[in-house]
Amino acid sequence: MVTTEEQLAQFIIDTPAQSISGSLLKEVKRCVINLMAVCIYSARDPSLDILLNVFRVEGAKPKATVVGSGFRTSMQNTALANGYLAHLEDYDDTHFPTVIHPSAPVIPAALAMGEYLGSSGQEVLAASAIGMEVCCRIGMAVHPAHYDAGWHITGTCGVFGSVAAAGRLLGLDKGQMVHAMGIAGTQAAGVREVFGSMAKPLHPGRAAQSGVLAALLAKGGFTGSKTILEGRRGFPAVASTSYDLTKATTGLGQDWEIRMNALKPYSCGVVNHCLIDAMVALRIKDGVTPQAIKNIKARVHPLVLELVDRRHPKVGLESKFSFQHSMAVGLVDGAAHPAQYTDMKATDPVIVGLRDRISATVDAGMAEDATQVTITLNDGRTYTQEVLHATGSPENPMTDAQLEVKFRTLAGDALSKARVNTLLEELWTLDDAPDIGQVMSRTKIRGRTVRN
Amino acid sequence: MVTTEEQLAQFIIDTPAQSISGSLLKEVKRCVINLMAVCIYSARDPSLDILLNVFRVEGAKPKATVVGSGFRTSMQNTALANGYLAHLEDYDDTHFPTVIHPSAPVIPAALAMGEYLGSSGQEVLAASAIGMEVCCRIGMAVHPAHYDAGWHITGTCGVFGSVAAAGRLLGLDKGQMVHAMGIAGTQAAGVREVFGSMAKPLHPGRAAQSGVLAALLAKGGFTGSKTILEGRRGFPAVASTSYDLTKATTGLGQDWEIRMNALKPYSCGVVNHCLIDAMVALRIKDGVTPQAIKNIKARVHPLVLELVDRRHPKVGLESKFSFQHSMAVGLVDGAAHPAQYTDMKATDPVIVGLRDRISATVDAGMAEDATQVTITLNDGRTYTQEVLHATGSPENPMTDAQLEVKFRTLAGDALSKARVNTLLEELWTLDDAPDIGQVMSRTKIRGRTVRN
């Protein structure tokens, strides 16, 4: 009888990169591009310096690169910092069925280990795909009881994904991989109580680090449990009141759970997204300007009024939880990046004025990611836009062009336009890169300035 | 209303070392001596090299000392390695009400941070006392549901103790200390499924490391939750089906939970201990030699036959789970250190022969740590020894002399007699040491040889 752990280990170490479909690898490449955009943007946050200062005090050999900072340190430190950056703005990807953010714990582990080993871009992509798949599948096995109990599933299940990615790149054999999962699995951690603090993005950071450590230890012969999933005191049994391990392995390698992963086009809660979509579509209609608008009326799913009905947020963070603000910036700026959720933007007179003219009524028949928005102009003209699935849902993924805009917007503050072009080009052709380290060296920002 | 977190933070940062009673500080000093003995012994285990090799590959500044190895590395790495060594032989201390092993996650954090900061011995002792107290009290709050669910309470609650010790030494203010507890608490990890593997002692190692990391981050301004204990999604609510937070704070600073912590005199499961005590007392009776013994009969608590009835273990590890073996070595060697549980000892003809003459009958009225043993000699003489509380229980702690013997036995394999004497002297006067780093430098073993 082959155990769940053995099946996963086999999948992790034995799936040839060539056997992973091009469309799947491309999706993971898009995740890498998205992660790089978010990390480069977030690297200007002062909190990164708190991490880097600890690294400086403790020292380490420069084996891998913290994105956006130009800082090179150990694989574990790098995985920690990049996992942190990837989730800092809550602007990473989401596996819809579990709300896991699989890129943040997994890709940084793959990048750090790949840079250390001189792995190719294709190897890093394949390891990321497999790691993200393992992460999401273990998430499916414990969902929803695990998250409902208060665990931050990205942090907990993240360790299984990061150790898969790191262990595969490190060339663990099957027995070592099983032990590595045991070593990583018993480090699964992260409670939702810390949401709203820096400790939240620390979760995927630590998960990435734990996976790297576990893989390195297992390679050296360190042992963990062989039954971290099936055992009576294993992770699912201990950290979830109910679970179904068949979800971890049924159709493994055939049906990819990461097909249900999607990138976010807007830097705010997902319930706002269809409304922003509508505004982005309506803003280009003839005669539509903030001044010309009499009112904007939306029909929305009940959750919108429950979660994000906040007409006049005072500060940036608050504005992320305002559908009125999200719609207003969608109309004025045609975007909802972090720049649209600053303190300044929250109190911008044009935005404030527009928010006063926006209202929503609940339509119980409306899907969670759907809306219908009607703009009425002062001159009597009206435009109506229907959105069936918000951009960034599995049914309506961001286009490559939209992803490029996101990348250019987030990275453009920190990198020259020429550098952005080079990096984007390299990332889109990541499968051809002979050495991931060369790509990582491009993420180094000259003269990084810390945002305050 | 002062929160639980604030009360604990206040206790952690504001309790003057001088206000901690001499007897309590001495008990913690005994824990340090015990930990040093165990670490020095365990440092010859080949598995330590797996950890050290990862440290070598990743590099770090030599800020602190891995006991027994002479290896100097970062504070986090050192805390990880010493926490690992302290628990590797399961020969560390036990807080009886919760089965937490509080020294292993806490003292290594205090030592690593103290060495980095140049703290005095007294400061390290006070930080250890306070860290161990916080660890045990949070353990009391979630006990027994938490451990019963499958969590390794030493790993999980360990993070609260290690961050308390590290944060106090680092001079965190109250607000920082609350955040540090939030950062550390959301890293609580470790499931019992990995018992029997190297990942078990990794738990206190990681807990020690997590506390050091959290303290360093909080000092830099990193934030965690202020409600990691009281919050709806905090550690107790998420990781325990029931808990009582009043146990974390009632009588804090007056009634010390670590009074219920005790050192182990024997390197095996605690149910054997009263039986070994009896044999150590009986072996010096007139005419008692292995050859002269007709039989040995014990009256025991039912758990003995349930857990450790194994007449002829074949290998060392198995022999730890044999009351017959434990009694036999107690009689022949007068000790039950790791040397009494080797493969060679398990098959020693004298021990094997004696095990055949040992039996036990259940006495339902017997306490768990009590026994009555009668030896009958071939010449008809009999001796009976009653043990009311096994040595190493809170009611019958190891004497200083017994602790010295344990230290000399465990450290004596690795250090010269002169070095053992110097080190013991320095540890007994640890409260007078101006710089903990000087003491740590004495733990460096010249020409460390790895045991295979």
Provide an overview of this structure.
The structure is a homodimer of 452-residue chains. In chain A, the strands form 3 sheets. A 4-stranded mixed beta sheet of chain A has the order 6-5-7-8. The first copy, chain A, has a two-stranded antiparallel sheet with strand order 1-2. The first copy, chain A, has a two-stranded antiparallel sheet with strand order 3-4. Chain A is globular. In chain A, β1 (64-66) and β2 form a beta hairpin. Chain A has 2 domains: 4-264 and 412-441, 2-methylcitrate dehydratase PrpD (Orthogonal Bundle); 270-387, 2-Layer Sandwich (60s Ribosomal Protein L30, Chain: A), CATH 3.30.1330. In chain A, α17 (323-333) packs across α19 (349-355). The mean pLDDT of chain A is 96. The first copy, chain A, has helices spanning 4-14, 22-42, 46-58, 75-88, 103-117, 121-142, 145-148, 153-156, 158-169, 174-185, 199-219, 235-239, 246-249, 273-282, 302-307, 316-319, 323-333, 343-346, 349-355, 400-412, 417-428, 436-441; strands at residues 64-66, 71-73, 94-95, 261-262, 293-300, 358-362, 371-377, 382-387. Helices cover 51% and strands 8% of the residues of chain A. With 452 residues, chain A is an alpha+beta fold. The first copy, chain A, contains 22 helices and 8 strands. Chains A and B meet through α3, α4, α10, α11 and α12 of A and α3, α4, α10, α11 and α12 of B.
Write the layout of secondary structure elements.
The structure is a homodimer of 452-residue chains.
Chain A: H1 4-14, H2 22-42, H3 46-58, E1 64-66, E2 71-73, H4 75-88, E3 94-95, H5 103-117, H6 121-142, H7 145-148, H8 153-156, H9 158-169, H10 174-185, H11 199-219, H12 235-239, H13 246-249, E4 261-262, H14 273-282, E5 293-300, H15 302-307, H16 316-319, H17 323-333, H18 343-346, H19 349-355, E6 358-362, E7 371-377, E8 382-387, H20 400-412, H21 417-428, H22 436-441
Parallel strand pairs in A: 5-6
Antiparallel strand pairs in A: 1-2, 3-4, 5-7, 7-8
